[in-house]
Write a structure and sequence with these properties.
By secondary structure, the protein is mainly alpha-helical. Helices cover 53% and strands 6% of the residues. It has three domains: 7-124; 134-289, hpI Integrase, Chain A (Orthogonal Bundle), CATH 1.10.443.10; 290-342, no CATH class. Strand 1 (179-180) and strand 2 (185-188) form a beta hairpin.
Length: 364
């Protein structure tokens, strides 16, 4: 019978968890995924001591992953396998440098925790996700109901994402004090706002692509201050207040509470309902960045685009260009086809006349 527990391994895993959380400041969700990867490998090997792991163990484990299924009963994707192996590679690299394991762990095994070059490329490949157009977003926003406080909140959340491109997890952790209505700015304070890598981000409302969205957000802020009498440390988008109805013996929505949502699940639900109501497929909140960036590529100068990049929270403008500015095949073909139309005033001018005009201007 194989062992189900190895105290030495547990001690090493716990120390690695501490190193990730407090040494590398990894997100707890990321650390949990790493922990699951290590546990999976450990179970496969029968919980043998980490110092006794060989390249044969690694090769056998990799082969087993090709036949392993997920909770839905489907084979693991190449990207999932790549992630598991990457987590294990990092762990054993750390282990090989650990004072209690140095010279005991075979450092060569770390190179075996990887896919082939072709499999690696395949794991990074993904089907293009088409973002919504501005027209589709505006149609959806206009169709959202606003007869109750809850409906107004939902509509304001949808609009807020459009004018700030904020991440959904950061959105639900914002407090009223983070938004300056007069300056129309948002300070994503990493001390309580769940930004990516806990980075502080100053964002100004970008209302030009859709003025309606900015108006809805400004109306929401006025409601919070004048009617809801919100306090600075209370959530910008309060969660729904649920109370038990003694007649139905069920919890029912009773307006807004003064508490934050625990996670961004509600934001995604709001988007799903809103798009479904107008017959559109679901677009996750993060795809709106693509929509706004593509608008910016057509309407902003290079200087302004750099400002937008920082407004989103990117340190380098290419971080905005590469993942969010990629054109679809249709947009690519349309843009190339319109190049001649853009310069139509010059297309009918002969080369001789162009040279004569250049010579005339040079003499001035």
């Amino acid at each position: 019978m194989m062992a189900e527990y190895n105290p030495r391994n547990e001690m090493a895993k716990k120390q690695y968890e501490e190193a990730l959380l407090h040494g590398k400041y990894r997100d707890p969700k990321t650390v949990k995924a790493v922990w699951n990867s290590i546990n999976s490998f450990e179970s496969f090997t029968g919980h043998i001591d980490f110092k006794d792991v060989t390249t044969d163990h690694v090769k056998a484990f990799k082969a087993s992953l090709e036949h392993e299924k997920n909770k839905a009963g489907e084979l693991l994707s190449i990207s999932t396998i790549r992630s598991i192996l990457g987590n294990l590679k990092e762990f054993f690299e750390w282990l090989a440098m650990h004072p209690q394991y140095i010279k005991k762990v075979d450092g060569r095994i770390t190179q075996y925790f990887r896919l082939s070059d072709n499999a690696n490329r395949a794991s990074r490949a993904s089907r293009e996700k088409t973002p919504p157009t501005l027209a589709e977003l505006e149609t959806t926003l206009k169709a959202m109901p606003y007869g109750t406080d809850i409906e107004n909140r939902d509509r304001a959340m949808f609009a807020f994402v459009i004018i700030t491109c904020i991440r959904d997890d950061a959105l639900v952790s914002l407090k009223r004090k983070d938004v300056d209505a007069n300056k129309r700015t948002v300070w994503q304070d990493p001390r309580h706002v769940r930004t990516k890598r806990r980075k502080g981000i100053m964002t100004r409302f970008l209302g030009e692509p859709m003025p309606l969205a900015e108006k809805i957000v400004m109306d929401w802020l006025k409601f919070l201050d004048d009617v809801f009498e919100i306090k600075p440390n209370e959530p910008l988008f309060p969660k729904t207040l649920l109370r038990n109805n003694p007649e139905t013996i069920a919890f029912e929505a009773q307006g807004l509470s003064r508490e934050h949502y625990a996670n961004a699940g509600q934001v995604r639900d709001i988007f799903k309902v809103a798009f479904k109501a107008v017959g559109l497929p679901y677009f996750n909140p993060h795809l709106i960045r693509n929509t706004i960036v593509k608008w910016a590529l057509k309407n902003m100068s290079q200087f302004e685009f750099t400002a937008l990049s920082q407004n989103i929270g990117h340190e380098h403008v290419m971080t905005t260009y590469n993942p969010y500015g990629k054109l679809s095949e249709g947009e690519q073909i349309e843009a190339i086809a319109n190049i001649r139309n853009t310069n139509s005033d010059l297309s009918s001018v002969s080369t001789e006349d162009l040279f004569l005009e250049m010579a005339r201007r040079t003499k001035k």
